Amino acid sequence: MTRVRKTPSKSVSIEDVARLAGVSITTVSRVINKFPSVKEKNKVMVMDAVKQLHFTPSIFAQRLATGKSNVIALVIPRYEGVFYSFYALELIRGIGTLCAVMKLDLLLHLTDSHSPLSIRGAGGIIFADIISNRPQLEEALAQGIPSVVINNYVDDLNVSCIAVDNVGGAEAAVNYLISLGHKKIAHITGDVITQAAAQRLEGYKKALKKNNIPIQKDYILNTDYSRGAARAAAEKIFKLADPPTAIFIGSDSMALEAMNVASEFGKKIPQDISIVGFDDNPSGLYGPVGLTTVRQPLIKMAEDSVKELSRLIADKKAKIKKVSLPTELVVRESCQPFSS
Amino acid sequence: MTRVRKTPSKSVSIEDVARLAGVSITTVSRVINKFPSVKEKNKVMVMDAVKQLHFTPSIFAQRLATGKSNVIALVIPRYEGVFYSFYALELIRGIGTLCAVMKLDLLLHLTDSHSPLSIRGAGGIIFADIISNRPQLEEALAQGIPSVVINNYVDDLNVSCIAVDNVGGAEAAVNYLISLGHKKIAHITGDVITQAAAQRLEGYKKALKKNNIPIQKDYILNTDYSRGAARAAAEKIFKLADPPTAIFIGSDSMALEAMNVASEFGKKIPQDISIVGFDDNPSGLYGPVGLTTVRQPLIKMAEDSVKELSRLIADKKAKIKKVSLPTELVVRESCQPFSS
DNA sequence: CTGAAAGCGCTAACAA
DNA sequence: TTGTTAGCGCTTTCAG
Fold first, then answer.
1. Which residues make Cβ contacts (< 8 Å) with residue A138, sequence separation at least 6?
2. pLDDT digits (tens, 9 = 90+) for B42-79
3. Which class does domain B14-66 fall in?
């Protein structure tokens, strides 16, 4: 048995490998980068040396030499609501998984949207939502860093974006409720500083208008996407003199909370009140009553953003792309026809 | 008005800035790195040039030159359960936030635990849980990369770890139930491939033994931490010929699910059955009955891991540290004394 | 098929 | 206070 010496504190370089293998560093580099033109014998020697020394090429030297970076940064605005959302986690999961598959390094940056972005060295940036961190996006664009925005449709900037058809999704939800005979439909919004929440509210209003149902102010309750706010909103609704027969809610987790409140008020779902959420959060599946909701393709959005960014990085002058992904109404058991 | 020329496709380097500012690159470097010894006038000139050219120093060149990397990698095993957990999100949030504050770059790596880690260039690694990805940890250690493991107490490896006293927490939960007069106490575990779940089970058994309560096999139900599995387990429990009067459950989200199931079975909480969870997930606060639970300091664990890693990076021969963070029983309304 | 040498963009002595 | 210069570890011509 050969005893393995303790790894020296200084990290091993390509030169050490070359010396041990008895070849030039160029050859080592070729082996590392899988050039076909290396004699089998040398290749083996090099690979042995690599293993023996626990050699890993310095990513920094590589990047400096090649000028290429396969780091992509994911910037998430760190405002209170986001981080408790199903949304953020799904996004991270989707993007993280695809990055692992595509051998991209994922730099995660939670930003307070004030301080300038410190994503230096990233080959490209994915902005998850644009709230008050628009300047950061603009700066990235100015620097010529390939960027893509998700969950926001950005009209006025020359940047690729992958959004979700929130207006359409909300409309579909409300139309469904109307088709069931509901006329008194409330809406608990998410945080309307987000484009998503604002658009869902828009869709809600649009559906009502198209069906000649007057919009009632006290049927619209704003929240910050938190369960606490949802609870407060739901309580307000149930205490209304003329309570609605259906509620469209800006997120599933809030809808779940509203369902709790309903039962506390002695209201049965869907018999006494119909509820539609938004997200298709798996949590909505459980519980006595499956939650009818609007599915938004978060994972697809996540994956598409990585693909789009890769495209942009590969071809700096590629044309930007703006897409709005369709949503889908998922009917479960939380709604029922309204009969007066 | 001066018209700004289109940013050249080639990225600007320190040399460009030096030329425009009329100084040497060293001076530019000094300004960038906030050396105090630069004449005000030059400093201004340089900063102007930087702004004008949208210059950002190449992180790769910097790292190559200094040999320092302030990238830290967070490795999360990508097995089904983790990613739906409150745990993962809190961790990411905690670590991500602290990294932003400490000006560290956070590389997020979701790993399938088979493929070798490709976290090259990271100054240090945080392993969130060690499941089957132990070889990756060992490899990192062999390469001399500072590492810290969280949520697992690793006895047999020379690595810093920050764990949670799961055994103690579980014991406290069960002891509390026993102090309330319960003797028939079931346990719905998390995924016992995780150390956390295994230890909570251990704590459960320990408390029972110490109080001379026999351990019943059919009172112990294993899950994978998912709500679906929790539902199945809860249903099994309620169908038991001799159902328990209390349940200790491995996570709050599962506990919430069990509460749903209970109400479907016509059981009131806490009158008919007492429930204790684990996590102190804010979701447990809502709903008609506040969930009594064991709080684990996730954010503290997250933050401590970053600090510990920084320490290790700063001083490569720093002694490793193994800690187990205390938990805390949070009593809310989901338990009540048992009276036969 | 292999190696020598010139950078990649920056920092850190060392001089001036 | 500022500039000159020698690397950091790797890739990439260009010869051999």
1. A157
2. 999 999 999 888 888 888 888 888 888 888 999 988 76
3. mainly alpha
**Quick one: which of B164, B20, B33 has its CA closest to B91?**
B164
| A203-232 per-position pLDDT tens digit | 999 999 999 999 999 999 999 988 889 999
Residues 38-97 of A with CB under 7 A from strand D: 55, 57-58, 61-62, 64-66
CA distance A176 to B166: 47
Q: Crossing angle for the helix pair A195-210 and A166-179, nearest 10 degrees? A: 40
The secondary structure of chain A in percent helix, strand, coil, rounded to multiples of 5, reads 45, 15, 40
Total H helices, total E strands in chain B: 11, 12
| DSSP at A108 | E
**Distance of residue A89 Cα from the nearest chain B Cα, in angstroms:** 7
Closest protein CA to C1' of nucleotide C11, residue? B65
For nucleotide C3, give the residue with the nearest CA to its C1': A24
First-to-last alpha carbon distance for chain B, in angstroms, is 86
Strand D closer than 7 A to residue B61 Cβ: yes
pLDDT of residue A113: 65
Residue B80 pLDDT class (50, 70, 90 cuts): low
Interface residue B231 vs chain A (CB under 8 A): yes
CB contact under 8 A, A286 and B260: yes
Q: Write the single-letter amino acid at B239.
A: K
The answer to whether A286 contacts B111, with C-beta atoms less than 8 Å apart, is no
Q: Which residues of A touch B99 (CB under 8 A)?
A: 110
Say yes or no for a CB contact (<8 Å) between B144 and A88: no
Whether A107 and B111 lie within 8 Å, measured CB to CB:
no
Residue B305: name the closest of B111, B92, B158 by CA: B92
Q: Which fold has domain A166-296?
A: Rossmann fold (3.40.50)
* Helix, strand and coil percent figures for chain B, each rounded to 5: 45, 15, 40
**Residue length, chain A?**
340
Same fold: B71-165+298-326 with B166-296: yes
Query: Is the Cα torsion angle A195, A232, B328, B261 positive or negative in sign?
Result: negative
- Smallest CA–C1' distance to D7, residue: B65
Give the model's confidence band at A192: pLDDT under 50 very low, under 70 low, under 90 confident, else very high.
very high
CA–C1' gap, A18 and D9, in angstroms: 13
B78 has a chain A CB within 8 A of its CB: yes
Domain boundaries, chain A: 14-66, 71-165+298-326, 166-296
What is this structure's pTM?
0.86
**What pLDDT, on the 0 to 100 scale, is given for residue B7?**
30
Chains A and B: how many Cβ contacts under 8 Å? 148
Judge: domain A71-165+298-326, CATH 3.40.190.10. Answer: no
